[in-house]
Amino acid sequence: ILMVDEKGKNMKCLTFFLMLPETVKNRSKKSSKKGNSSSSSSSKLPPVCYEIITLKTKKKKKMAADIFPRKKPTNTNTTAVQQYHQQNLNNNNTIPAPNWQGLYPTIRERNAVMFNNDLMADVHFVVGPPGGTQRLPGHKYVLAVGSSVFHAMFYGELAEDKDEIRIPDVEPAAFLAMLKYIYCDEIDLAADTVLATLYAAKKYIVPHLARACVNFLETSLSAKNACVLLSQSCLFEEPDLTQRCWEVIDAQAELALKSEGFCDIDFQTLESILRRETLNAKEIVVFEAALNWAEVECQRQELTATIENKRKVLGKALYLIRIPTMALDDFANGAAQSGILTLNETNDIFLWYTAAKKPELQFVSKPRKGLVPQRCHRFQSCAYRSNQWRYRGRCDSIQFAVDKRVFIAGFGLYGSSCGSAEYSAKIELKRQGVILGQNLSKYFSDGSSNTFPVWFEYPVQIEPDTFYTASVILDGNELSYFGQEGMTEVQCGKVTVQFQCSSDSTNGTGVQGGQIPELIFYA
């Protein structure tokens, strides 16, 4: 029985005795059957109130967090809790309430109050480069529990008893994010500080926070930031992230090379990209990207961006560009007139294109292998009829989902069933109504039942376990073949593709039959 006073405090636990009438009767009968049945022996029986029944439970022992789940404080304490949370952000020095500990039922919540709090702080950090520093409080015990580096710093054999520690190589926002994880067990990442937070987590050996940073980067990876993240992943020695970056750069090479982030990479990363055998890009795009990088590098080195200085900062990396593999028009109208090549180099490359006896070149003359596209065919057979499949501006559409990240390069479409014919095709790829890629092009069919590829301008990145809508609007006078015996799930290499009908389809295409027989992708 729990006893409390009027204010609900001073709780006490009292043991109680349970008397069962049946038990009392049984005890009396047993005692009366004994040899001595006199009243005197009967009177020696212990009082029935001494019969104690022990009640056992098999409930699992609970921690404070299980007993007191996190919830909003009562109305009387809401203001105080909000003040403490605001204090963590503003780094105030005092806590007004004398019994602030009573507002938080778990040690985790009470510990979180100390985050960025001067109360009981026994060390301070001056974080950031000169001119952008921020002074942050810390508690040695909490920090040492969360990081082996802090443990060695405060309690190791070579520990220094300093009240203030300067950390010029870590950004204040990143250091705060790491402290928040150590104090509050909360991970708060933002796109503009995640790399700096990863650096802090690596420096102070906080592996779980570092893993969360890598996961955040992987989910936000795109062609726009892949080159920068490639450079950082090599610096932080994160092979999984490095591999993911290469997958994006290979498949969406032209987008990656044209991104602003490409100009921010270091020289070593530039060389590794220019050496890449599987870049899926035209060589003229690689050439122009290298010149853009050289111009920005001149600014970083405080050099005038002249032709000579651009060539100087590129160094031997210039010869990693496979200029002899360009289309002749691209070379004549682009690289040959850029000024970056010497006169002898320009003449030799022209001879490489035209002469039977080709001169020796310092440039790599072997074309890149690029990526081989995969085709996911969703029909088991195809057919044609006298009135199908007809196109009058209506939409053929199908939804699909994959179990691994891929890059959709285009669709395979059926052609004419009445001899050779030309079709105009507008293809689209959407996710939840948002257009991710589209293109308008023409293709010529030879009258066979083969599929004919129609490509997007750039491959479109597709995330796993999400349905996307593939659509095409065809314009042509001739009837075409159509697929039948469609499959809801197709295994294509290591990628599993699921199909379902789309409400956008107004021309009859569905899972069982119709157009869009193939998805063309890189994986």
From TrEMBL:
The keyword Calcium belongs to this UniProt entry's keyword annotation: no
A GO cellular-component term linked to this record: cytosol
Region (Disordered): 25-45
Keyword Cytoplasm: yes
InterPro entries, alphabetized: BACK, BTB/POZ_dom, PHR, PHR_sf, SKP1/BTB/POZ_sf
Cellular compartments annotated: Cytoplasm
Any Pfam family matching the protein: BACK
Broad class of where this protein is predominantly found: cytoplasm
PANTHER family the UniProt entry points to: BTB/POZ DOMAIN-CONTAINING, BTB_POZ DOMAIN-CONTAINING PROTEIN 3
Name under which the protein is recorded: BTBD3 protein
Source organism per UniProt: Thinocorus orbignyianus
